[in-house]
């Protein structure tokens, strides 16, 4: 991974699922930075705001029960995603580089 530029677009493939929860969370956060995934999350958020919340009366007040966020991506072996590399993302990528295979372009 040392040869990958700190800017540009890089395509990643998950080669192994980490056992540590914090490493999985880092890969999941990187996967959610994909523009296609962000668009899907935004659409689901708008739909949840429109129809997913339930308002009920509890103790004389309106109680809002919110629906949980939908999981669009999952960290599995073979899962792939494209990420625009920025200096802010490089440290996260380096922390999980042994679980990812990178391909520039």
Count every helix, treating DSSP H or I runs of 4 or more residues as helices.
Answer: 3
**Helical fraction:** 25-40%
Largest sheet strand order = 4-1-5
Question: What is the name of the CATH architecture?
Answer: 2-Layer Sandwich
Query: What pattern of helices and strands is seen along the backbone?
Result: EHHEEEHE
Please state the overall shape, judged from the principal axes of the Cα atoms: elongated
Query: If you average the pLDDT, what whole number results?
Result: 88
Count of discrete domains: 1
Q: Which blocks of ≥5 consecutive residues have pLDDT under 50?
A: none
Structural class: alpha+beta
Task: Please characterize this protein's 3D structure.
The chain has 105 residues and is an alpha+beta fold. It has a single domain, classed as Ribosomal Protein L30, Chain: A. Helices cover 36% and strands 27% of the residues. It has helices at 21-31, 35-52, 87-95, and strands at 8-14, 54-58, 61-65, 80-85, 100-104. The strands form two sheets. A three-stranded antiparallel β-sheet has the order 4-1-5, with helices on one face. A two-stranded antiparallel sheet has the order 2-3. A hairpin with a 2-residue loop joins strand 2 and strand 3 (61-65). The two termini are 14 Å apart. The model has no long low-confidence stretch (mean pLDDT 88).
